[in-house]
Amino acid sequence: MVLKLYNSLTRKLEVFKPLKKGKVSIYACGPTVYQEAHIGNLRTYIFEDILRRTLEYNGYKVKHVMNITDVGHLTSDEDEGMDKVEVAAKKSGLKANKLTKHYTDLFKRDLKDLNIEFPAKFASATKYIKEQIALIKKLERRGYTYATNDGIYFDTQKFKNYGRLAKIKLGKARVCHSSGKKNIADFALWKLSLPNENRQQEWASPWGRGYPGWHLECSAISTKELGQPFDIHLGGEDHIAIHHNNEIAQSEAATSKPLAKYFVHGAFMIVGKDKMSKSKGNFLTLVDLEKQGFSPTVFRYLAVTSHYRSKLNFSRSAMIGAQNSLYKLQEMFLAKKQKGKILKNYKQKFLFAINDNLNLPSAMKIIWELEGSKSNLADKQATLLDFDKVLGFGFKNYKAPAIPTKIKKLAEERERARTNKDWKKSDKLRGEIEKLGYEVLDTSSGYIIKPLF
Ligand code: AMP
Ligand code: ZN
Known about the structure:
14 helices; 40% helix; binds zinc ion; four-stranded antiparallel β-sheet; alpha/beta; single chain; 3 domains; binds adenosine monophosphate; Isoleucyl-tRNA Synthetase, Domain 1
């Protein structure tokens, strides 16, 4: 069955065809590790995970590389301001490399908690300085760079197709910018350390001591690890306008080859009308969610069941809805897993939905159809376990939450009352159990205790 993906480069839904038969190379822009990731960031990584799993479900062998930005991302995307890592290191009193390791570890923990498959490689920008310098030299030789007082810049007017991803038209006006850029769209390839900046992370280069510009690492890392072109480039929708255009410009100007065949972007998570972001202060982390009683899997459910190209509005009530729905699916695994068979007609429909540009809302409809069907439990379990290769809710290892002994005893007592046909007593006990936040469900294979949300 063909897989269709929306390619931001062509602004069209396209049939996916890998560069090499049976193999897919993916590059995803990773986090800037100067603070914790918020759940908006994590929505993007969940979408990327679903795409990867969908490719694997279709039988492709995937090589997935993600960079870790541990230097060079400035507080302003206009090549001004301070290096976010240096600022955070100074503020915390930590060494820059300790700080970035700390936040890289937290990021990996978040991915694990969300059951996101790790990329084949996490590539830190500071480990690819040599490659980044070599790339600037190449661009210099081909005439795409110029120097200012504070660094080496990419001359976007020299690159014919600049901005094609976001349909950016370059203005001719020279901008008055303290960096001395010729055009507002030009961007730093190498920034020089300032005399009294006291940077912790800086390197010698043919242009003086300094550090690479933010966009450069992705071009250098993706080429080194995946070659050029590679198949799919991923990121959040904010990368369309600047970051990915700049990556394309650098890589294509240096080699005259395309950077990647497909660019796929995930939409933002919003709160009301605003993008969830650190600067707006409207963000939550996974740890915050757990404090509110929501497991990472509940957040994964919320993210997975929305379409990746639609904005997802975060709210507590949406999380409660996600929790209830997830629990309903997990309930199918409360009873012991039995040997069943994958139901072909459901699998066919599920595959059709996910292969249609990851139409997960549609895939979830099929799952609910399955859940409510008369098929036997063993077959439902087997089918859902198969779909979970894509969804990643972890049904295979699902363990029912521990039920307090007191509740278990009350439920046993109620069961005895029912066996003795003492309906009055059994109703009274059900009421007591509910007051304590649990309910008892009677099924054909015995009773189930579940928490009330
Ligand atoms: P950063 O650590 O800021 O470089 O961002 C990491 C990733 O999160 C990028 O791919 C961004 O596009 C993405 N991102 C940032 N904010 C949001 C949001 N509110 N919703 C979804 N993705 C986001
Ligand atoms: Zn990038």
